[in-house]
Each structure stands twice: as C-alpha cells, then as structure tokens.
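Subject: design request, 120 residues
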C-alpha cells in the first residue's frame, strides 16, 4: 500500500476537524454516545476524502502540442497533441568497493596530531 501524500493528509485532517465541529454545532449533542457517533462519522468522512484526492501519476511520455498552421483548420481550433518520448537518463556512477593493500605501517601513516599554539 503506497504512503499517503501531503495533500491526502491535509485534506483528510481538515475534513475530520471541520466536519466534527460542524456536526457538533448543528446537532447540539452533549451525551457521550452522541459525540462518539459524530467523531466516528467525521473520521470515516475524512478517510473517504483522503482516498479520493487524486494522486500524481508518473508518466514517461511527454506530450508536445504541434504548432498550428494556417491550413490546420478553422480559427480557434485546438491542435492535436503529439506524443514525444522522454530523453534517456544519463548513466549514474556507482562507487565500487576496492581493497587496497597497506604498503605503509599504520604507525607511520597516522602520526599523532601536532599540537602547537597558533598566533593570536
């Protein structure tokens, strides 16, 4: 199951909050079971709204509109869309682990740091 988008979380949360307030104000209920029913209905409505928010669709095909010419049709008509394939992605360099033999002893390669005072 995909994770919810920011728009789905926002719309669902706002729906729950505002629908709960509206139903509580309109029903003027003060009993526990009445408030529980309103809260359950508001959460169900919020989930419904969050599920119906359109999600962005990833598309690998770009659509380019053709340039209208004078003989294309009547003035004001829309040109037909033309499918254009997306350019290929550049190759990505992946680091490869390489073992390097130690030709210098560790005691020489990593000396103790120099601790000198710097000029003020």
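Subject: RE: design request

Done. Sequence follows.
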């Amino acid at each position: 199951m995909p994770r919810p988008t920011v728009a789905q979380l926002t719309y669902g949360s706002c729906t729950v909050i505002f629908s709960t307030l509206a139903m509580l104000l309109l029903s003027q209920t003060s009993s526990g079971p009445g408030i529980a029913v309103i809260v359950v209905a508001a959460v169900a409505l919020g989930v419904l709204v969050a599920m119906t928010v359109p999600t962005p669709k990833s598309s690998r095909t770009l659509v380019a509109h053709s340039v209208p010419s004078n003989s294309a049709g009547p003035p004001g008509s829309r040109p037909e869309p033309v499918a254009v394939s997306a350019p290929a992605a550049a190759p990505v360099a992946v680091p490869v682990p390489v073992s390097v033999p130690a030709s210098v002893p560790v005691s020489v390669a990593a000396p103790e740091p120099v601790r000198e005072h710097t000029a003020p």
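The CA atoms of residues 112 and 118 lie 18 Å apart.
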